[in-house]
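[Automated response] Your request has been received and processed.

Submitted sequence:
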Amino acid sequence: MIALTSLEHTRSSSARKERGPRLADLADVVIDNCAPPGDATVELGPGPRVGAVSSFTGVLIAQVLGELVCRKLLERGADVPVFVSANLASGDAHNAALYERYRERVRPLEP
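Generated structure:
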């Protein structure tokens, strides 16, 4: 299992269940999202903070991992079937062809 978690938060708190494992304890690979304890960082005055760091870093980490996987596949000569922006001139046609190829595994992209 690969876990994306805040190691700083993990180290500063106890498990929710007494003697229970934490996500980082169960994972084969742990990726630290570098979020502070409590996750949010922006103080707007008295009260809780807002602006979850884990949302931003989670998206960034997922994008970088996706790019690395695509790069490794290309280096091995594999096909890399990725959806592209519909704003590209050939985007709709490209994505429609991929959808047809994988329609049993990909849910429709339309609402």
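Summary generated for your ticket: The two ends are 32 Å apart (CA to CA). Residues 2-78 form one domain.
If you did not submit this request, please reply to this message.
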